[in-house]
Design a protein that fits this description.
Layout lengths: L11 H14 L12 E6 H19 L2 E3 L2 E7 L3 E24 L3 E22 L4 E26 L2 E21 L3 H9 L2 H28 L4 E3 L4 E4 L7 E2 L3 E6 L3 E3 L27 E6 H13 L4 E4 L18 H6 L5 E7 L4 E5 L2 E15 L4 E20 L2 E18 L6 H24 L3 E2 L6 E11 L2 E10 L5 H8 L15
Antiparallel strand pairs: 1-11, 1-13, 2-4, 3-4, 4-5, 5-6, 6-7, 8-9, 9-12, 10-11, 13-22, 14-15, 15-17, 16-17, 17-18, 18-19, 19-20, 21-22
């Protein structure tokens, strides 16, 4: 039975403490903060979820792991130098007994205790002199009585993408129980025992290198995350990261640009700096895995984009009371309209004259939009505009989550109107007000809700889905608090959709990330 070193006898908790101390003693520099419009906070329960997802997969990659051969020459009194070797050392498999994750000041520490660790190997020795040549070989099994592994990883922003790097990584084996088979193994036990420390060191180094290799694949995956999320032919969300991630004792916060850009334009690298910003404290229960805060500028940016694209207009040729869109229904209220255009159908052209303005306050979301409603008469061969009514419309609404999309619904609060111009004389105020109310409640609001019901995607990695979400509204921002589930294996095609082409080699899968 090989003896454990003092460091090897450390459990998961002391190892975790050691790595956290290292991240505090050797901090990384933090640049000035930029101006984000979306903030995503992963809480301790979210970190635990990610740990429980990745650690078992990391353990799977250690199965059948090969350790480099070990050869050494041992000097035996009287006999002389005997050459011994331990070869074909293979890790049979491991099981995770328990694991822990914690955020330090500059990174995240993951530590795990492994059980049922076993290895197989082959052994041999040879001795030769001018008188005699002796050699023997056999195989052996090694049972490890406990193993602790840990890795401390940092994250930083690099040109709008996340860069993951390993700050410290270690593997510590406890007792080794070596059983030899073949040859005169009872005689050679003492020789093979001389290899225990070398076997320990070789296995620890190999596992450490494998963990670092897995971290590099995770870095490759994170670096390949898309910098924009396509919404439609007009808009895409700019999801480049701004600032370095910020770490607290129980969470990690990521800042995202979040504004909408034309879908045919590459998301620009954000280099605006406005000084330090503080970690946003989530409202409500901190047990939720994920908190996403969206500034009202996000919604105003998409309204400005659609306005600039000329999409905030709608032609109305059908209403619930269809007779209202015929000049005959107005002959007693607007006689001139009927005299000049008897029994003619009418068409309403509703268009925004400025981008809608979204304002978010505690418990409510308000939007104001200024519209022009042009009344047109359908002639035999042409469309004749006869009047224009200016409207200022106020709606209020609420947001919810459907799948991974943020959706909404509004209702009419109030509106005011003025006659902008008229070629058919003065219009009766009461009649115009009734007509506009019908148009707004039965056409405009449902039309807006049809688009809001589709919503736009929240910045969630493919393969994960939001669940048990609820919405909070605070001053100037909407906060989505939720848990997440992993529902779709990230095969090669899935990674390509999420990360794009990040390397000339085949795309990295979730299982290959560790």
């Amino acid at each position: 039975m090989a003896n454990a070193t003092p460091l090897a006898a450390m459990g998961t908790r002391p190892l975790l403490l050691l790595l956290i101390i290292i991240t505090i003693i050797f901090p990384t520099s933090t640049p000035a903060a930029a101006s984000p419009h979306i903030s995503a906070v992963i809480s301790q329960s979210g970190l635990d979820f990610a740990k429980d997802l990745l650690v078992p997969r990391a353990a799977d990659t250690l199965a059948h792991l090969s350790v480099p051969d070990i050869e050494r020459s041992v000097s035996i009194p009287i006999i002389g130098a005997v050459r011994m070797a331990a070869s074909r050392i293979v890790l049979g498999g491991v099981a995770v007994a328990n694991s822990t994750v914690a955020a330090g000041e500059t990174g995240v520490v993951v530590a795990a205790s492994l059980s049922s660790v076993n290895l197989t190997m082959e052994w041999s020795y040879s001795y030769s002199s001018w008188l005699v040549k002796i050699s023997d070989s056999g195989n052996a099994s090694i049972q490890v009585e406990g193993m602790d592994v840990g890795v401390s990883m940092g994250l930083k922003n690099e040109n709008g993408s996340l860069k993951l790097f390993v700050m410290e990584c270690g593997c510590y084996m406890k007792d080794l129980d070596i059983t030899l088979n073949g040859g005169s193994s009872w005689f050679y036990q003492g020789f093979i025992d001389a290899f225990s420390n070398h076997i320990r060191s070789a296995v620890e180094n190999t596992i450490t290198n494998k963990i670092v290799e897995g971290a590099s694949k995770l870095d490759l995956f994170l670096g390949g995350l898309p910098k924009e999320i396509y919404v439609d032919r007009v808009a895409a969300m700019n999801v480049t990261f701004v600032n370095d991630p910020r770490f607290s004792s129980s969470s990690v916060e990521f800042d995202i640009d979040g504004l909408f850009i034309p879908s045919d334009k590459t998301a620009p690298q954000s280099d605006m700096h406005f000084g330090d910003t503080k970690l946003a404290l989530p409202l409500g229960s901190s047990s939720n895995m994920l908190w996403i805060s969206l500034d009202e500028d996000v919604f105003n940016s998409v309204s400005a984009l659609y306005f600039k694209a000329g999409l905030l207009q709608h032609m109305v040729d059908k209403v619930p009371d269809q007779f209202l869109l015929n000049t005959a229904s107005w002959r007693f209220f607007i006689p001139r309209l009927y005299r000049e255009y008897p029994n003619k159908d009418m068409l309403l052209n509703i268009s925004a004259i400025s981008p809608p303005s979204v304002r978010i306050n505690v418990g409510r979301i308000d939007t104001t939009v200024d519209l022009d409603v042009i009344v047109n008469v359908l002639g035999s061969d042409d469309i004749v505009p006869v009047a224009c009514i200016s409207l200022s419309v106020a709606v209020s609404g609420h947001a919810s989550v459907s799948g991974n999309n943020l959706v909404g619904k509004v209702e009419l609060n109030y509106f005011s109107f003025d006659l902008k111009w008229s070629d058919i004389g003065k219009l009766h105020t009461g009649i115009v007000q009734s007509l506009m109310r019908i148009v707004l409640k039965n056409l405009f609001v449902p039309y807006v809700n049809s688009y809001l019901g589709q919503g736009f995607p929240l910045p969630i990695i493919k393969g994960f889905v939001i669940r048990d979400a609820y919405i909070l509204t605070s001053y100037s921002s909407i906060i989505v608090s939720s848990d997440v589930s992993f529902i779709e294996p990230m095969d090669k095609s899935g990674i390509k959709q999420v990360a794009g082409s990040v390397h000339k080699d085949p795309a990295v899968t979730m299982k290959q990330l560790v």
